[in-house]
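Lecture notes, continued. The same structure-token format from the folding unit now serves as the input rather than the output. Read the line below as a description of shape only.
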């Protein structure tokens, strides 16, 4: 049953995963406190603060520094990389890797980074994925706080 659900979801997903499906980093924090903490202190959690005050509403900058600003999210939020969470952030979905992916969870690779760290990026060096991903590593494998507590933990 679960897998039928997963297949149905994979087919429907492109139509479902809209910007309105963002739940926000605070929702992820409930079960991923360590990931949240390192994100918040890292370059993506602070990507809006890095802009000069006069640029904080400039769409040309927000596209990379705060892509979900219109949804009220500051910085490069969890869901800018992991996909809108409305459907996958439920505890029973998150515990099932396959179902979570079918419902929109993305664990990005190099391509996901290049959307912002590409040719047009104001960087002195070419983006080196293997090196850069280590600098933003967050979370503890198998240690999500919601693993046994379930939705009540929220
Ligand atoms: C109700 C608790 C809960 C919430 C809320 C939640 N997660 Fe999870 N998440 C889990 C559990 C449980 C796992 C399973 C793996 C583990 O134990 O760490 C998991 C796994 C993951 C993984 C690893 C998946 C894999 O297969 O490698 C990612 C990435 C992730 N969550 C991102 C998020 C993001 C982003 C949000 C917010 C949009 C979020 N989670 C919200 C409980 C939760
Ligand atoms: C294509 C994506 C993209 C756009 C558009 C963009 N930036 Fe950035 N910006 C980045 C990335 C990626 C970095 C980090 C580069 C690095 O350190 O290698 C960065 C770094 C910066 C930094 C340095 C921050 C720090 O803490 O050192 C400033 C300041 C900055 N950008 C301002 C701007 C302004 C102002 C605009 C709009 C005029 C803008 N950016 C548009 C992607 C972008
Ligand atoms: C800039 C993109 C980006 C952002 C922003 C981001 N992540 Fe991730 N996340 C990744 C990548 C890439 C990985 C896989 C890292 C690896 O290969 O070691 C990952 C892995 C994870 C994992 C699995 C960790 C593990 O080792 O199993 C969890 C859980 C997670 N992220 C949660 C979050 C949460 C919660 C947030 C926001 C508070 C967040 N992420 C923000 C890119 C991102
Ligand atoms: C939505 C746009 C966006 C995406 C996607 C994104 N980043 Fe970033 N990243 C930024 C911005 C903007 C900054 C600069 C933040 C600042 O300092 O103001 C940055 C900064 C960084 C930095 C610190 C500066 C540097 O280059 O050393 C690292 C490391 C980094 N990103 C790694 C990654 C990795 C790895 C991925 C893919 C898994 C990724 N980013 C995906 C927008 C993005």
């Amino acid at each position: 049953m679960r897998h039928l659900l997963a297949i149905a979801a994979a087919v429907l997903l492109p139509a479902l995963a809209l910007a309105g499906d963002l739940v926000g980093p605070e929702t992820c924090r409930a079960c991923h406190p360590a990931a949240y903490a390192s994100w918040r202190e890292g370059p993506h959690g602070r990507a809006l603060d890095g802009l000069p005050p006069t640029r904080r509403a400039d769409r040309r900058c927000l596209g990379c520094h705060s892509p979900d600003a219109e949804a009220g999210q500051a910085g490069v939020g969890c869901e800018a990389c992991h996909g809108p969470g409305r459907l996958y952030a439920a505890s029973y979905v998150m515990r099932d890797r396959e179902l979570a992916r079918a419902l929109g969870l993305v664990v990005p690779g190099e391509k996901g980074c290049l959307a912002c760290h590409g040719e047009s990026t104001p960087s002195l060096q070419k983006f080196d994925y293997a090196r850069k991903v280590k600098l933003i590593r967050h979370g503890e494998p198998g240690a999500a706080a919601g693993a046994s507590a379930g939705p009540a933990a929220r």
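Point for the exam: Residues 25, 28, 32, 35-36, 39, 44, 76, 78, 80-82, 107-108, 133, 136-139, 141 surround heme C (ligand 3) (CB under 6 Å).
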